[in-house]
Amino acid sequence: METVLENRTWRYATKKFDTHKKVSGGDLDILLEATRLSASSYGLQPYHVFVITDQELKEKLKPASWGQSQITDASHIIVFANKTDFGEELVDEYLQNVSKTRNIPAENLKGYSDFMKSKLLGLSTEEKSVWTSKQAYLAFGNMMQAAAELKIDTCPMEGFEAERYNKILGLDGKNLNAAVVLAIGYRSEEDETQHYPKVRKSKEELFTYL
């Protein structure tokens, strides 16, 4: 139990990464699997995750990220992109997977299919995009915490221009939108922010027992 809290205390939004230290392929695989196993509403996972290591591409993304050095200095840049719109195919493809994985006849899932479609397909395009971005954030949070368990540093980043990311990564034609970015790697010894005490609300301010 102490390790759980220690890892979360150790984690901070890394501002300066060591450009010489890279996340190993094995650790990256663990992070990606932890992300794949993340919870999402109905299990639909209405997002896609881009893993960026190409330095030239990072350089292109840096100006669209308010010039923040984490984009070019981190080992990997992870872009979580939510679906901007969807139709029945989102539910149909998921239930095909359920049928195959759990060996359940597809016709036995029709009731669940109808229920999900009744809740989701009536949403406006804007509401769909908001909902899918929330699901992307669930996966994003899981990756960040898994990284802390592995003592891999991260910097969660919302300071970027999504429209420019979408253009650079070709997301517009894929019905995707860059929702949030996670830089991963290892902190530089020169990053002074690693020594700052963590500032959070007190338990009394944050929690209410009913």
Automatic annotation (TrEMBL):
Pfam annotation, one family: Nitroreductase
Boundaries of every Nitroreductase domain copy: 10-186
InterPro entries hit by this protein: NfsB-like, Nitroreductase, Nitroreductase-like
Keywords noted in UniProt: NADP, Oxidoreductase
Gene3D superfamilies per the UniProt record, alphabetical: NADH Oxidase (3.40.109.10)
Residue stretches in coiled coil: none
Transmembrane segments: none
Source superkingdom: Bacteria
GO MF, any single term: oxidoreductase activity
Matches recorded under PANTHER family: NAD(P)H NITROREDUCTASE YDGI-RELATED (PTHR43673), NADH DEHYDROGENASE_NAD(P)H NITROREDUCTASE XCC3605-RELATED (PTHR43673:SF10)
Family, per entry: Belongs to the nitroreductase family.
Annotated protein name in UniProt: Nitroreductase
Native source species: Flagellimonas lutaonensis
